[in-house]
Amino acid sequence: MMTRSLITWLALSGTMMGVQAAQAASSFEIADTTREAYSRINPEVTRKQRADALHGRSLFRQSWVVPPAQDIEIAGLGPLYNQLSCLSCHPKNGRGQPPENPQQAMRSMLVRLSLPGRDLHGGPLPHPVYGNQLNEQGVPGVSGEGWVRVDYREERVTLPDGETVGLRTPRYQFADLHYGPLGGDVQFSPRVGPPAFGLGLLEAVSDQAILQLAEQGRRQGVNGHPNYVWDAERQRPAIGRFGLKANVATLRQQIAGAFIGDMGITSSLHPKENCTAVQIACKQSPSARQPELTDAQLDAVLGYLRLLQAPARRNADDPMVRQGEQTFIAIGCAACHAPVLTTGEFPDLPALSGQTIRPYTDLLLHDMGDGLADHRPDFQASGREWRTPPLWGIGLVERINEHSYFLHDGRARNLTEAVLWHGGEALPARQHFARLPVGRRQAVIRFLESL
Amino acid sequence: MKNLRLLFGLIISLSAFPAAAKEKLTVLTAYPEDVVSRFETVFERAYPDIDLAVLWRMPHDALPYLSQPQQGGVDVYWSASLRNFMVLKNQGTWQKLGISRQGLADHLGALPLADPDGFFCATETAGYGFAVNPAYLQSHGLPMPKTWQDLADARYQGHLALPVPSKVGFAPMMIDSVLQQYGWDQGWAILAGIAANARLVESGATFVTDGIGSGERGIGPAIDFFTASAIANGAPLQFIYPEPAAYSPAHIAITAASRHADAARQFAAFVLSNAGQKLLFHPDIRKLPVRAAVYADKPDGYYNPFAAADLHPVVYDPAHALPRLALNNALFDRLFTDHHPRLQALWQKLRTHEVAGKDERLIKIRQLLTTVPVDAKTAENPTLQQTFIDRTTDAKAEAEARALEQVWRQAIDRRYAEAERLLKQLAP
């Protein structure tokens, strides 16, 4: 009854009407159910923009080369790195996955590191020996930093109607640390590579819109807040949009950060190789050039990611999907997973301006409880807070990425598990979900699969 | 709610434990991430004691890397670059593979699948053919092409996209396969007709999915896996193998300097195993296994080169092509790339007159447009071939190549000018 009354209230208040009103297709929305659905470039752009985006795509897909090398344009991997290619962690522009057992390496996942405290701009304090990310690989002659092994402890959860669901808790162990122990006060955060499409649209959501979402959330009983981070390009604080804790202000900085952090490729934003003072062989290893990723290349990748379309919803008229959508809203999921946003003015790429999009995120940080906490603060994100991840395209993960691992560390093996891991501010929504009759729960999952 | 019991709390151990040391195996390849990641994952499951580290280099950059002392720390080279495997074999930088070849054929028709001295062997192959957009052909009322000669037909004028071999990695061998199949003179004549019908493209890996898939052109000669993968991922394309088909194999070898030879052999054996070969069927890979038995489990519609070779024996031998690829590339550019709009205009006029009626001058004009400035015998001259191979690294060779090209340019220009003069005579 409570659920039904909530639906009625929300419908009358216009929240659901907002969803219906957003049916007008954006040129950044693509009706595509193939395995290329995360990789479509908006065709309604100039020839030059498209050519630049195609160049960016080739760089995004490129396996990078250890210097020195003849192919200077694609050289610069390492000295320390995680993977050779952007595509490694964002396969087919989609989601990475965690290892299944301790014998497997992290192939589309990494571990951020820091010590308690803050850097000059309020960000995490890098580990003095290992930096802010464990780089498992080193170029020939440089030892990788070590390994992180993961295994899982399985618990069965019984829902009120008697259905049982297995939830697995990850356990991480560091192995073969080549530069000495991490120390007991290290903070670390395992991350699976998130999808890479639709990022231009999220960048074009205005600060004002994000602040309004925070206010709307408060009216619905959640306390999302933006992460104010350091904008290294503009040398001032700014609202963070990118990264799993919204800890990066712009897509350009996110890309440059991934190039240096994940692949050891320098750029004008990160001109120094990712070696700490004690990593002598790393410091002595040659760079390809300075910087290794030119501004033109960085901007090409930026152009590519900005122009990637987001998959359109499917089966929206299916009665079960509609019921699931109504329930999703009614039990409070949409308070954070905001269904519809409108982008603001975006002079850098006007095509991104004024777009009605369905990302199912508010781009805000929310307390997700102890279960999902990484205990690693990042600017204004606490160790329990995460940015609401966009849900668009989530129903295609299994088809495109051939797995169904969700959440920041991939612990959830399906969408039901992912919902049941929600805690903190999301606890009431999760409790509502758990109390639903099995058919209604399935409808919510069917709705998510339609995104 | 009483029954709802959720476990919270990330269980973390900070103690760095001394894991059993894995043996590090370094593989140098030019395969893309889509291929590498799948082999890494499945190999890791089968051999958890081996830590597979992959390095990436294009063939031209891999050769000097593998030629340095200790071969750059590489244990296994796994790439589609027959030239590198042969050059490095001559340098004595491989050790014998020493793995079982049971169930593996040594030849696919004229195509060798294993080095006769046992230093390297093929791990997969890829076929050359035509990426086709069926909807495009239907809307333009065009038939499906079956042979390279078909592509030179006037009705395909404006409907093709042809990769330039000096710019697109897979194209040199593809172009040479036409020369081997039809012979030097007829092969170049067919290529002239195809070039006249085509937009010349310099981005081979993407033009199939971008250019043909989008309907910009209807047919693109290409290597198969780009198209096959695009089809497996939902693109409305087809790939047609000419009969007989030509193939470009990839190989694997173990470096002489490897200090992990046993692990290297395990990796090579895995790549050639049933499990490794079946990975090639993945929609994101779509290469052709060299272990014939695995085709029993191939996806529907998957091309089987062994079955195709029974009907149309393979005649193309890439080893024969290798010494003349650089020469071919130069000839292609001087004949077609440098003159493309002029060439297309000439062919259009020629075909218009050919349709209108017979005239002995038309035979002469066609001859002028299809004659290659180097004859078959000269093209086999090893000194000439080496000059064009060396031109990128040797200033003297570059000067000689340029001088030869200047002679060709003048000859080609004279022929095209004569064709223009004769066509003007024919003008109504």
Mean pLDDT of chain B: 93
Helical content of chain B stands at: 40-55%
Q: Biggest interface between protein chains, with counts per chain?
A: A-B, 69 and 55 residues
CATH topology grouping of the largest domain in chain B: D-Maltodextrin-Binding Protein, domain 2
The tally of helices of chain B reads 19
Domain unit count of chain A: 1
Q: CATH homologous superfamily of the largest domain in chain B - what is it?
A: Periplasmic binding protein-like II
Assign an overall shape of chain B: globular
The structure class of chain A reads alpha+beta
- What's the number of structural domains of chain B? 2
Distance between the termini of chain A: 27 Å
- Global morphology of chain A: globular
Distance between the termini of chain B: 93 Å
Q: What's this entry about, in short?
A:
Chain A has helices at 2-13, 15-21, 47-61, 86-89, 199-203, 207-219, 251-263, 280-284, 295-307, 319-330, 397-401, 415-420, 427-435, 438-449; strands at residues 29-30, 80-81, 109-118, 124-125, 137-138, 147-158, 164-175, 187-192, 228-231, 236-239, 310-311, 341-342, 356-357, 365-367, 385-387. With 451 residues, chain A is α+β, with helices and mostly antiparallel strands.
Question: How is this structure best described in words?
Answer:
The complex is a heterodimer of chains A (451) and B (428). Chain A has helices at residues 2-13, 15-21, 47-61, 86-89, 199-203, 207-219, 251-263, 280-284, 295-307, 319-330, 397-401, 415-420, 427-435, 438-449; strands at 29-30, 80-81, 109-118, 124-125, 137-138, 147-158, 164-175, 187-192, 228-231, 236-239, 310-311, 341-342, 356-357, 365-367, 385-387. With 451 residues, chain A is an alpha+beta fold. Chain A has one domain (2-449). Chain A is globular. With 428 residues, chain B is α+β, with helices and mostly antiparallel strands. Chain B has 2 domains: 23-126 and 247-311, D-Maltodextrin-Binding Protein, domain 2 (3-Layer(aba) Sandwich); 127-245 and 320-426, D-Maltodextrin-Binding Protein, domain 2 (3-Layer(aba) Sandwich), CATH 3.40.190. Helix content of chain B is 46%, strand content 15%. Chain B has helices spanning 33-46, 59-67, 82-90, 134-139, 148-151, 171-182, 184-197, 204-212, 224-232, 261-272, 274-279, 305-311, 318-321, 325-335, 340-356, 360-370, 376-379, 382-390, 395-426; strands at 11-12, 23-29, 50-56, 76-79, 94-95, 107-108, 111-112, 120-132, 160-163, 198-201, 219-223, 238-240, 247-255, 288-289. In chain B, the strands form 3 sheets. In chain B, strands 2, 3, 4, 5, 8, 11, 12, 13 and 14 form a 9-stranded mixed sheet that branches. A two-stranded antiparallel sheet of chain B has the order 6-7. In chain B, helix 6 packs across helix 7 and helix 14 (325-335) packs parallel to helix 19 (395-426). Chains A and B meet through helix 3, strand 6, strand 7 and helix 13 of A and strand 1, helix 1, strand 3, helix 2 and helix 8 of B.
